[in-house]
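Researcher: Sequence recovery benchmark, item below. Answer with residues only.
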């Protein structure tokens, strides 16, 4: 099934109907749904679809030749290879003279690395032939840094040739409800916490009626597709997967600053910085700093990819049990009770998305939302605020707390927010929000009635109003 990319599909189809030359650049991390979007778009359209190989220039030329010949002669038995890439591009030109052809080069970075001249060749044929025709060219890639710098960047031969670009992001916590609508909001939250909104992972979980059963069968089982996914992805993308694995494990284990990570991995800081940079480019790690502040000494590293964070939290320490096929014996009493703690950071991200994307009638217009931390100058203690909503202008802020716990939250949480808000900005005006999975005590409900705070339950952030 195809879900949740309706806007991108609408724009791509609108441009297709114009009948003019298009160069559409599509990029985003692996598994996010780029190829599914392209396949959906290409349905019922004349298409030459070529997925580049992580191989030599000659092997890619053979594969590209096959893609073109299969378009020309779908039942053809003998598939010759064109003599050069110029010959292939000339053939594409010939076909597009008579047909509104979609020409897809998926995994374009593989082709560009194998055949160094391909971007210049494409630039030449776009400038001198294709721009006056009706070809619909799609360049797609999973290497975000390559696509941003070597395709979209100023120094690229292809700079200025694109007619549109799409950076495909993971789905939001609300969007994933389309996959398994039978799940409760708590299960939907957990599904988001495990998959991070990556469609491929959502599909591979194969949830029927029970999310726990799906996790046991498809993630906590050595035969399950998702069990080896992190290792396979690292092997596919990286030359030294073992060291990258150690870096991710260090961050998952609580190391958050560059020097801490380097020490835990056992490499020099300069060398570790290279590994961190690559993991940032892959979207596995992220840099985080207090909202309203620039990168500096407070910058820390977190695991951005929820699936990696979940896997590294629960799989390595239970590897022996999983390998012995005994996970069911410990799942209910030794693993599932830890999910609430794991979901704390996930819930914070969901609440941030709620404020930025879904909440109606906010007291201020928000520019950004994120966590903030700093030191209270009076007590010398570290202060952590889950959510700070920064206004487009002015000094009014949303200050929020997120609690993914079963127990109800009382008025002491509001008092704590007031204290933290004063540390954040002594001269600001604040609107307080408290998000709670378990609900609220009567004292806090009364505070909301008096306009002192806005209370939001887990069910509330899923309600589409």
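Model:
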């Amino acid at each position: 099934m195809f879900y949740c990319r309706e806007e991108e599909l609408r724009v791509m189809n609108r441009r297709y109907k114009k009948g003019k030359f298009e160069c559409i650049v599509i990029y985003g991390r692996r598994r996010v749904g780029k190829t599914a979007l392209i396949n959906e778009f290409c349905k019922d359209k004349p298409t030459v679809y070529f997925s580049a190989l992580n191989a030599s220039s000659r092997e890619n030329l053979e594969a590209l030749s096959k893609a073109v010949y299969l378009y020309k002669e779908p039942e053809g038995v003998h598939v010759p290879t064109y003599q050069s890439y110029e010959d292939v591009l000339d053939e594409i030109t010939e076909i597009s003279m008579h047909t509104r052809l979609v020409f897809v080069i998926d995994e374009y970075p593989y082709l560009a690395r194998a055949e160094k001249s391909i971007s210049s060749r494409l630039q030449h044929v776009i400038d001198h032939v294709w721009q006056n025709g009706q070809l619909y060219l799609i360049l797609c890639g999973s290497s975000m840094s390559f696509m941003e710098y070597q395709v979209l960047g100023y120094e690229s031969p292809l700079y200025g040739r694109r007619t549109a670009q799409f950076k495909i992001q993971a789905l939001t916590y609300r969007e994933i409800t389309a996959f398994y609508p039978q799940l409760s909001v708590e299960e939907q939250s957990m599904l988001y916490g495990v998959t991070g909104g990556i469609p491929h992972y959502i599909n591979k979980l194969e949830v029927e009626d029970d999310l726990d059963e799906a996790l046991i069968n498809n993630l906590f089982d050595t035969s399950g597709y998702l069990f080896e996914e992190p290792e396979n992805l690292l092997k596919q993308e990286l030359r030294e997967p073992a060291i990258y694995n150690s870096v991710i494990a260090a961050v998952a284990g609580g190391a958050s600053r560059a020097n801490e990570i380097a020490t835990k991995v056992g490499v020099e800081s300069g060398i570790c910085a290279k590994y961190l940079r690559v993991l940032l480019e892959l979207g596995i790690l992220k840099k985080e700093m207090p909202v309203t502040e620039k990168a500096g000494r407070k910058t820390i590293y977190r695991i951005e990819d929820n699936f990696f964070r979940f896997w590294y939290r629960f799989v390595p320490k239970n590897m022996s049990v999983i390998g012995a096929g005994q996970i069911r014996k410990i799942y209910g009493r030794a693993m599932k009770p830890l999910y609430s703690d794991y979901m704390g950071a996930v819930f914070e991200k969901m609440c941030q998305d709620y404020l930025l994307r879904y909440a109606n009638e906010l007291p201020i217009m928000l520019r950004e939302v994120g966590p903030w931390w700093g030191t209270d100058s009076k007590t010398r203690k570290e202060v952590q605020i889950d959510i700070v909503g920064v206004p487009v202008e002015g000094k009014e802020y949303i200050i929020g707390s997120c609690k993914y716990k079963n127990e109800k939250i009382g008025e002491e949480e509001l008092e704590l927010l007031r204290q933290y808000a004063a540390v954040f900005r002594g001269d600001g005006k604040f609107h307080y929000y408290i998000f709670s999975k378990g609900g609220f005590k009567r004292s806090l409900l009364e505070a909301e009635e008096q306009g002192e705070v806005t209370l939001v339950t887990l069910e509330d952030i899923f309600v589409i109003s």
